[in-house]
Amino acid sequence: MLKEATIRLMVHPKQYSTKPSKEETAFINNTVLKNPVTITVKDLADSLSSGQSIVTSYLHPNKNTITRSEQFWKSQQFVALDFDNEKFIIGKNKKRVKIKDIQLTWEDAQQNSFFNKYAAFAYKTFNFKENHPKFRVCFIFEQPFLNLDKCKETINRLLELFPMADPISNQGNRLFYGGTDLHVFNYENTLPIDPTLWLSIYSYNLLYLNEGSKPNSTNRHKKIHINIKDKNKISEEKIKTNRNLELIKNLDAYSLADIVNSKPIELHNLTQINNYIKKQDLRIFLGVSSSTFHDIFHEEQSPSASVYKSNTGSGHWFYKCHSASFPFCGTIFEVVEKLTGLTRLQVKNFLMEVFKITLKESELQMELKAELDEYKYILQSPDFREMYPNAFKLLNKHRYIDDFYIILDLAKQNLSGDIHDKRKLFFHSLKTIAESLGRSEPTTSSRITFFVFLKMLCKLNDDEIPDKILKIQKKNQRKNKFKRRNTMYEIRDYNTSLFQEIDNRCKEWNEKGLTTKSMNREGIYRNFGKAEADRVFPQDKNTELPQLHDDVVKQLTVTLNKLVQLKGWTTEKEVIQETVLFFKGQKQLKSDLIKKSIGGLLDSYNLKKISCTKKIKEQYGITEDDMQKSSFPKLIIKY
After folding, report:
1. What is the DSSP letter of 516?
2. CA distances (Å), 422 to each of 359, 368, 412, 572, in order?
3. Structural domains of the chain, ranges and CATH numbers in brackets
4. How far apart are CA 443 and CA 449, in angstroms?
5. What is the pLDDT of residues 298-320, one digit of tens each?
């Protein structure tokens, strides 16, 4: 790695020299959630081997509530395999009894080839004994998981390789106590989040190691899936299928590759792999030729199934059964999953072999990923608050910083491998970003606009997009008949001057008293001018503001100035109430427009917003006739 990587999780600050008691555990549970940290791998290893407890994931409160529960899980980049070298047996009283069962020693773990390649470090637990070793082997995923189910699925694949490890290592809210002696494999080791890149090779080797034999050429086409097949017994139910379906059921990737005539291809990220596989002709893969045929999943008298290409223009192939009793629709992934019983990741593993796909990251991709990790570290650093207080205050409000953290990870997953300029470019649909953030599309759009306004994220004009990528984007736009295509974003180099500009923009935003309702083109236009609105919304440069909105803002402006001149102060609520209009929906429109334009009005008429206090009320002669005694709204006054 070019720069020291960091991860985010919860670390308890207190060090223990022995395993915590029940009372101490309760204390740890109650306080560890108050200490989320962004930490280097080395510092994490030092913390654990010094007796500090951790939660393996980053948990975030919801409505000011947080417990050590998976419902508060936000992301995870760390997992530890717990080797207690014990097992349960049924005792004389027919109850489960735990006994010693040494399957992996501390010394053997240090020599394990998988650990040496992918694990970062290991440490002894407090209960470690020479005749009964107990320890944990710790892995850092190459990038954080943003989906708990996908994280668990990958950890389960890891547990398949080491079934002697504690199976509850896959819990997203797992608390691990610290321990003692530390063994470092390599702090720069990371484990790919796609088990395709490691599960097949090591499950294959582990199987033959356990059997005491070596593979031969006759089963070379099954080598990646021998262990998977053993764990996922395929149904022996007779289905009227052609040879292709039998090959799929038998996981015969070698023969299928010949049938579909796969050509080796290198792809550069996981999104490319998924799209490439879904675009392969499903008719050839399944061995069907007619437009309709008998469903491959159930017996039927009349054919009800078909294979077709998506009408959205994605190029993805679908299988669909139209029967009322056994309806089904899915891509090649869902079809193979249903035929074989494999998990989604195992299906991808199988299909990558069928279509001869290799994931290959360029040095440029790895360098750009390291830079994105560095940005994450800066934003999460405790120094950020001291250096850029205005940015810290605004970005931490309503979890903006957490959402941007996720956007940086989305950028990492989708960096192109075939660009030659050092730019951090990526594109995503609004729907995809919204799903990753766990927010609605309108809220996500507003947040992206805010990041673009702050220059943390840039939307690119056509002339700023590399020709090769722009050509693909326009082709997809024509094919899909979309009025708009996915926005191309760039994350530019963060430096001291940019962070200072971000801080100044946050300060100006607060001083203008703006809210999320200003996060649209009209809001930016009215508060910061047309040039800034065109920068933040490059796709809408030629769009004019509605004449009705201009007319309403003019009337709001007249009311605002009249009230300030008359009393010396007013409020947004009062301006809305005193501006009399006569058309349906005028009340909501007034409310929206004053939020969108208040910053520009303050600047234009030398006004400012201030917090209302008892002292301010006395200064301006505000009585209970003007507002309730318990009410303290923001006041608009003259400078």
Report:
1. G
2. 20, 8, 14, 47
3. 6-192 (no CATH), 202-359 (no CATH), 363-511 (1.10.10), 547-638 (no CATH)
4. 10
5. 888 888 899 998 877 778 999 99
